Structures are given as structure tokens and as C-alpha cells.
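Fig. S4 source data, part A: sequence.
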Amino acid sequence: MAHLNTPLVTELMQVIQHHNDFVNWQQRRELPMQVVRNLCTSLRLDERFSGQPGRFYSSAAMMVAYTYDAWFALQSSRQQGLDGLKRWIDILKSDADMLELCGLDWKSFQASAKEILQSVTDQLQSDQPKPSPSHKGSQQRREQSDRTVSKRQLVNQLFQLHDESPSLLTRCVAVYLLKNGCAVLEKPEKPERYQRMLLGKKKAAKRLEEQLASRLPKGRDLTDETFLKALELLTYQIPNSAEELARWKAQLLRKPNPLPFPILYGSNNDLTWFVKEKPRGKAKPPKQQICVKFNGLGKHVFRVQCDRRQHHYFQRFVQDWEVYKCGKGPISGSLLLLRTASLLWKPANQSSHQPTGNPWQDNYLYLHCQIDTQLLTREGIEQKRQKKLNSTQNPDLSPSDPASKAARQHQGHVKRLQPIEQYPIPLPSREPYEGQPHLILGVSFALQHPVTLAVVNLQSKQSLYYRSTRQLLKTTDAKTDQSHLLRRRKTQQQRHSYERHKALKREQYAPYQEANLGTYLNQVLAKRVVDVAYQAQVSAIVLPETKGLRDKLEAQLRARAATKIVGSVAAQKRYARAASLRLHHWSYNQLAELIKSKAAKLGIPIEIVPALVADSPQEIARNIALSAYYRRQAAAK
């Protein structure tokens, strides 16, 4: 079915791009699902896409809707970032220009900056709620807590002051404070610093403009037709400009995805779970193999092969299905552990598998399942059941006619939401997590220090202790000590980078990888972070927002290359490329997602705040924790 479903998804993407309402959907950042279903229904009559199961057509519509929703959100985020950069470039001025505009010397301008900064800080302090008398700590710490103001609050207030103030001096001081991190420096800046800052912002704006003009989603080409067209174009035609030549080369060198789109199952009713026994001889009991059938592929039975860490999830899927469909007890579908699933292909590991040209041998079929971790325990199911019962007791949603079909369905749904004491499946019990409200854990990500923790007391605004990456990995037990893996991974990366460089000079393929060592390190670090949070009984784990982090760092590297190397664009690109390799040596998004997943299993809340900048990773982690605290206060007003 891959040769039918993937071209259907690609054709749907092309049809939507030429729809009359595409611009309106892009402005609303939402693609109506009903429109996609109608277009998919019209394409079912096409001979190129006919003969597929109904679930495959629904999967194609969902895949297109998810893809465009993500693309709309990405383009909107880029546009907002570009607008903010253009605004900052328009108001950014050097210290010399601001002194000339205001007609002041440096000492007078510095005094005005200190006065305005103190005025803005006092205004923000007056708006903050006063701490209660029951707070513990000395009088000096409480007074210091009162004087603490979030840097993001200062930034927002300074931007507002710049936009609303009619005074030229006030606007220049606001720009000066924003440029220097809400601080007053002892000496005026050097011209090189201003040029580097301005050039970095312009590079970032240019990069966002290029990304906004990037291509629309085009799907996947399983026949390499797009590659052959690009090769023919580059071979037999002459480009009109260097930009066009670069675009043709990028299209030719872009590595296409040879695998078909996954099949999405948006409901837990589309999968049938059962256990199949396999005899192993007279003296041994039969082997039990978990199997699954998919809606639309009912003639095919798939055996589940997984690790021991995932085996208990599939056992629970079988138990839930036996109760839900086989009549062993009434249970609501909303209380099933499995929520959604997807059937997809993944390539085999190149380090241990030689390509054969046969897609069934070069690729493996995987099943990705999404579960609700709240439903793993009895207490979690009871909380979910109470939430569902409260929603069913809403009189506005109840059917008016008690004898109608809708009323009978409503009564059946309420009946299936049975008390936890009558739940037919034995479940583990775990007390809900309750952290101390005055403690919070801040996490910072950086190039030199992948992760740094700070446990902060919100009453005193002071950090109780910090944990670096090496401290998280190091333990007193030699069996669990993983601190040596940092050096091992760095050594492997350096050696493999050198081997790849030599292989590319010989025009050879260089499949040098670290054997998933980075993924394993992220898993260990995520577990240690959650362990620290659980032992400290913090109220929440605060993570920095990693979206756009690499773009900001790459823009800074390009600006540094432009100032160090003048006159040679090729040399600037080589310098920026060599320096930017460190950005991709650690997957911060993967680490953040693992922390979220492991914290959700224990019920520890997760909060996301914008990334901050400071002199040290410890200070960044502390400021991130305090930023979440100030956001709570602002939301409570």
C-alpha cells in the first residue's frame, strides 16, 4: 500500500497549496480538517489512489493536516521573530550616536541611565505582591527578596518606556539599557562591539527572511523523479545567477526520504490485541506471543517484538482490550492506556547492516504507541474517571429526551465509568506527588555545560545548591557512575570528525557514528534530573525553551566570522561552519523531551520559560527558576 498512500499524501499537499483559501488558512494558522477530508474523498476516485483501506485515507488526511499545522506555526514563529529583530535593528544605536543625539557627555548620560533604571525597578517592585509574614528567613533576606525583579519584566517595561516616552533622552537610555542587559556599564562601549551586535542581528534577520521564503511542504518522492529532474536541469541548462545555481545545487544535494509516510491510527479502537500461544515441546509450557491486528489490515497478524522495558505496556494493552471488547467487564475507552498509534518504517542500522537493495530487508517496521501515563496507576485512573464524570454531569451537555438514542449512549458512557474498586484489571498504587511550594528546580542548557541544575528557595530567592553535568553523572557506586562517558563521547566525536574529513577528501562514504551514545547520555541525565527534583520535593521543574536556540547561536557565529574575516565570503562560511559544528554535538530538544516524559511518570509538573542569558550556567538555571516564579505571580493577578 506504500506506493498508493504516500503519493496520495503528496498529491493532497500539492492540491492544498493551490486552494483559493490557502492564504486565509495561513493567516489563521489552521487548516480545517473537514476541507482535507473532502479533498481526500474526491481523490479516492482517482485510479492512482484507489483500492486502499478506509483507515489509510483517514491517515493521509491526518498526516496532511498535521504537516500544514506545524508549517503554519513555524512560519508564524519566524515572522514574529523577524518583526522583533527589525524593530530592534531600527532602534539600535551606538553609544557615540546616542551621546551626540542627546547632547550630553558620558558622565551625565550614565547618571540619567542609573536614575531611569532605578525608577523602572521601583515601579516594578511596587506592583509585586508583598510576602506574607509567615515566610521564614532573616529580615535581610526578606528585604532582598522584595528588591528582586525579573530581568524579563525589566525588558518589557523598558520597551514600553521607549515606545511611549516623548523624551529623546529617555528613549536613548531605554535602548542603552536593553543593549547592555538592563545594566549600566562603567565605560562606553567600543565601536567594534556595536558593529558586531548590529551585524549579528542583521544576519539573524536575513536568515529568517530566507527561511520564510523557503519551499512549501512537498511530500515524499519514492521514485526519485524529483532528483532526476534536478540533475537534468543542472546538466543541460545554464543558471542566470549565482543564487539560482546555489538553489539548483541545494535541490540536487538534498537527501530525499526514501521511506513511505506512516499510517496514523488516531483511536485506540483501531488496534486489536491478543496473545497467541506457541508450543515449545512436551516439558515446557507454551510460549506466549503478543500479537496485534490493524484496522484495514485485518488479514495480517503482526507479532510484537520489544524490549523488557516496554513489554509491560503491551501486556496492559492486551488486558485493556480483553476487558473493553471481549465482555469481561465494562470499561470506558477514555480509561484505556493506549491513546494513539502509528505504523512506520525505519532504516536498519548502517553500522551493523549491509544494504541489499530489498526494502523489506533494509528497513524495519515499527509501531509507535502514545500512552497516558496518568492511567498507569489506580490513583491516576480515579482522577481521570472523576474528571470524566464531572464533564458528563453538565446539564448543558445532557440529552433533553431520556428515551432518545443519545440519552441511552450517555447513560452507557456513565455506567462504564465505574469506580476504581470495581476495576477489573489489577493496577499498581502510587501516592500522588506533592512538592514543597517554596522550592523549584531550574535547568539550563549550554554548549560547554549540557545541563546545569539549581534548586531555588522562592522565599529567599537564593539557590540551595547546584548540580553540573559531571556531578549528575558521577555517583559513589562504580556500577552507576557514568561520568566517564562525557570524555568518551567527546573523544569519539573528535576521532570520527577526523575520519569523516579524510574519507570525504577521498570521495568515500563515511558512516562514522557514536553508536547512540548521545541518546544514552540524555536518558541518564534526564533520569538524574528527575531524581534530584524528586529527592528535593520541588514544586516544579522549569526548562528553558529550546525553540530557535540554534538559529540565535548560528547568527552570532556568522557575525563573528564576518568581523574576523573581511572580504572573503567563502572563508567566512568555512569559519562559521567549523564553529557551528559544536551546536549539533548535543540534542537539547531530545534531553528536554526525556525530562518531560520521566517527570510525567512521577507526576512532577513541568514549566517552560524563554531562554535567558547570564555569565554562568548556574546563574542561568537560577534565573530560569525565578522567571517561572514571576510568571506565576503575573498569572495570579
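Fig. S4 source data, part B ends here. Residues 132-147 have pLDDT under 50 and may be disordered.
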